[in-house]
Design brief:
The chain has about 800 residues and is α/β, with parallel strands linked by helices. Helix content is about 45%, strand content about 20%. The chain is elongated, with a radius of gyration of 47 Å.
Length: about 800
Amino acid sequence: MQLAIETQVLYELALSIGESNELGPMLRHTVSELLRLTNASGACVIQMGAGNEVGDAKGHPEYVCMLPKNLHQHSAHRAFSARWQLAPLYHALLERPEQLPLTVQLADTTAHAFLLPHFGVLLLFRKQGPLAENFLRAFGPLARKLGTAARSCVLEEELRRQSWRLEMATSTANIGVWQLDIASGTLTWDDAMHRMFGIDVDLFHGHMEEFLAAIHPDDRERVGTELPLLMIGDRFEIEFAIIRGDGARRQIYGCGRMQRDANGAPVTLLGINTDITSRKEAEAELRRARDLAEATNQAKSHFIANMSHELRTPLNGIIGMTELALESGLNDTQREYLRVARSSADSLLTILNDILDFSKIDAGEMLVETIPFSLPVVVAESLKSLTSRAAQKQLELVLDLPTDFPPFNLGDPGRLRQILVNLCDNAIKFTKQGDIVVRVRAVADGPVDKVTLMVKDSGIGIAPDKLEQIFDAFQQVDASITRRFGGTGLGLSISRRLAKLMGGELTAVSTLGEGSEFTLTLSLPRAETPAGVSLPARSRWEGRRALLIDDHALGRTTLSLWLRHWGFDVAEAPDGTSGVAALRTANHTGNPFDTVITDALMPGLDGFEVAGVIAEEQLLPPGRVVMLSSGGRRGDAARCRELGIAGFLTKPATPTELREVLSRVLDGPEGGEANSELITRHLLKERPRARRVLLVEDNIVNQAVAEGMLVKLGYEVCVAENGEEALARTDAESFDLIFMDMQMPVLDGVAATREIRRREGSERRTPIVAMTANAMVDERDLCISAGMDDHLAKPVRLAVLQDVLQRYAPR
């Protein structure tokens, strides 16, 4: 190719590049000119993908232009593609000096590969031999120009797509776009703005005053004042009302952003306006509906509260007078009539309570407390109210409670009791025979206990597809349930909502015909042991032997764990006969038991018969038998006294109750209180054991004064003359409060207190109050730092002592 011809060809090719801003037409025009001017047989342009990879996302070549269209079927094209993968080809062209094209001879065809920087590769196939080297070098800048033009077409296309999407979005969302030129004050609106304001394009002259004139008179002054202040910053937002050209009022939301030059001077304010009239009307309608709903709920709550009060007043009279009548002399028929009346009144009261609770929860008025409480005590006390009902159906109500359960947590014991009673009440209602097990577990998670409370029965069960339905209000599994068992269908719904209010969850699993298991999970913060409460020493009854007789394996296991936790050497018997045999063997081998804890109702030899054998054969010292019963019967107390039974507790006994009874049975005076009066849970509440106080004092006069005051106030006093004696007494016994002198021989009060705290560890904390003649502030600080709880200065006045006792060991 002669130089003049080459120059003409290059000139014409340069003119063909970039004639169109659309990629396809521009490339087809340029490639067709290239084929004509170079007498080539074919050419194609391959676009690179993201990351400078040639081809599409799967690595296949993306031909954006191919002439002729069947070029890929030509032998030369196939031979080139077999020799060169496109990605290596692109990178090879990048590395060639001056980005010269790559020339490959393929039989009778020559292939030239040109780099199109930042776009792809141009392949040119020619049968008349290779192009001249000068032409190839001169074509390099044109190839770069072609790559730039192709890249520009791609960007133009993307810009058009983005603009179209923006236009569609603003049109669909009823968004108007405006622009204010700061220098000239010219305001430009798009079509959506004109439609929004109801002002024709021909009638709008681009003045800010026209915009302000369209604003509703109620907002015009505010917008005119606020807008210039808002535009000082880079962004602003504002809401206002307008009067459209047709007189309609619309509510508008506007926001904008300031564009600044290199020196920070404002140039253009760009913004959008949105018609939010529909949203504002919907919000107003929602507010009206909410206000109406709240007023309706309020009226409903007042109505239910008034009805509750009106119904409870006569119910209180019915229930109260019925119970009084039941305590009087009645024949069996009269007693049965009154029992039915009381049962009906109790059922009516339960329904009333359920409806009131449901109404409170539904209205968002139900509140939960956060107070310290003992979960084991709450659970056990809740079950006591149900034991008689379970006993009537010959069901065993078993509490599975571990010994390492946290003593105190923070929560709402009342609502927790309500949930538990509802779950157990349902379990009793739907179970004909077998057991109802209440299992409580806790896992420490930092300062919080993850508590799980499970109620498992062996009742009728629930079909899997009905499990969620039972938690809906006024729902039973089917209509026959209500007819057979009664109930409102509110209990489980209320329980689940209460669990949610307390931050927990109530779930259920069940097998039809086999039983159900309901699980309540809660996160309860751990609470400090309240002042005046001393936790028992684990080794209090170390070396003492206890025989546990119970035909229920799980109940026996739970009680055995408690007893071992308190230091007992425990033997178990599954029935009365083997229990008596164990007692005889222990006496015969010279290793007798110190106490027997027996179930009252057992097959074969029951608990009372066991107690009779013990008394007749003198297998235990008098007053060492504790009876546990699922439900008290008339004459039980008399039989206990006749047989020398020391304590009688209703199942499930709380650890506190059982520990208190054993304390009176084993730690009381020989043949004393335990033998003279039957210890029941009512006696424990009505006539609590005298609080035990340890007085650590070396001065005889001070001993006499303090002991006299404490005895007068109803406390049992033990005296230790120095810190060493105090350590020995606290190791052997438990006390509710310790008064500690500071200055004593052998071991002073500070050292003794520190050692007591070390030995107690985290298991318990007995309140210790310093009693010293030194009333200085430094002395008090020394007491507190040593682990004492308070400080009393001598001489001690009775009123001050009474106040301290009430605070740390109330009677």
